[in-house]
Specification:
Elements (H helix, E strand, L loop, with lengths): L7 E7 H13 L3 H4 L14 H9 L4 H9 L3 E9 L4 H4 L2 H6 L3 E4 L10 H16 L5 E5 L6 H9 L3 E6 L6 H6 L2 E4 L13 E3 L12 E3 L23 H25 L7 E2 H11 L13 H6 L5 E4 L6 E4 L3
Parallel strand pairs: 1-2, 1-4, 2-3, 4-5, 5-6
Antiparallel strand pairs: 7-8, 9-11, 10-11
Helix pairs in contact: 10-11
Length: 323
């Protein structure tokens, strides 16, 4: 069994900051306000389909943010700050709750809610830094320069500070105040997969593993719960085999993203144990047995269409194929 990391990560999301910045980045400065996106309800008969299309295009993938944060250690705190009664924000609730993010309600006291999230987020970060002695990393998802003193204070408290923001909407001073900074656009897993069909190799694989895996556009990192044994694929009706194929597909996407995240450690080859730890951080429900394998190494050998395995070293090591 892979050993859990000793690193403990807290993630704080200034939700309005990140979604408004993303929308304006794609559609023009101030367009979020001009389109009145905050109170836009797409299902109404008089809703503008053009605005609905812009909203879909600018949707923030919270899972990509949390996956990146999990590459630093186990996430022990994850909070998003916003007025969740607003229709636009409420549309994200399922995505956030599905990743166990605490939704911190900010009740509007003024029309602009100026600095509401900034102050509440900063207070929570400092309180958690003193209360949670084992906290090692603080991830601030925002681009506002008001967070500079917060980042500096966290560093003085011996916390490793990571900033995540939208390119073009993040203060350069905030990025400099962090130990590490990442653009939202550069997070692993955001771009659609270039190859639409990823066959699962039958070489060195479990006999049960004979299905073809189709990699969809990235929407959700969580592996679906086991609903059908992979070993029954040959004899089960086509309808009952579909959940097993979905399970295989999700596991392949999870493996690819885990390796993409681990690539930031500048190592050419990743140890299999580290890969499994990262996969479990991203999806605690991941197990190789429901996929038809007794060992994690067997699962990896079945995915040699997307990974390379280093056969020169006894400890199993792997990397993503470059082509």
């Amino acid at each position: 069994m892979a050993k859990p990391s000793r690193d403990r990560v807290a993630v704080y999301i200034d939700f309005d900051n990140i979604v408004i910045s993303r929308y304006n980045q794609l559609h023009g400065d101030g367009q979020f306000t001009k389109d009145r996106v905050r109170h836009f309800i797409p299902n109404r008969s008089n809703s503008d389909p053009a605005i609905a299309a812009r909203i879909r295009e600018a949707t923030v993938d919270v899972a990509a943010v949390l996956d990146y944060a999990s590459s630093f250690g186990t996430i022990v705190v994850s909070r998003a700050y916003a007025d969740w009664s607003v229709p636009f924000n409420a549309s994200y609730q399922k995505q956030l709750i599905g990743r166990a993010v605490d939704l911190t309600q900010l009740f509007p006291t003024v029309s602009s809610l100026k600095n509401g999230a900034d102050i509440r987020l900063a207070v929570d970060v400092i309180e958690d830094s003193f209360r949670l002695k084992g906290l090692t990393h603080v991830v601030i998802v925002a681009g506002d320069s008001d967070y500079i003193p917060l980042a500096q204070r966290c560093k003085r408290l011996d916390r490793y500070v990571v900033g995540i923001g939208v390119s073009g909407a993040t203060s350069t001073s905030l990025a400099a105040a962090c130990d590490e900074y990442a653009d939202y656009d550069a997070l692993p897993g955001l771009a659609p997969e270039t190859d639409t069909n990823i066959p699962v190799s039958t070489t060195d694989a479990s006999p049960a593993e004979t299905s073809t895996v189709v990699t969809p556009r990235r929407t959700d990192v969580r592996t679906p719960p086991p609903q059908e044994s992979v070993a029954d694929l040959d004899t089960a009706p086509a309808a009952s085999a579909e959940p097993a194929r979905n399970l295989q597909k999700a596991a392949t996407v999870l493996l690819r993203r885990a390796l993409a995240l681990l690539a930031k450690n500048d190592l050419e080859w990743q140890h299999a144990s580290a890969v499994k730890v990262q996969m479990k951080r991203m999806d605690p429900s991941f197990q190789e047995r429901p996929l038809g394998y007794t060992q994690f190494s067997d699962f990896l050998k079945s995915r040699q269409t997307i990974i390379e395995i280093d056969k020169r070293s006894p400890p199993l090591r792997l990397r993503l194929k470059t082509s």
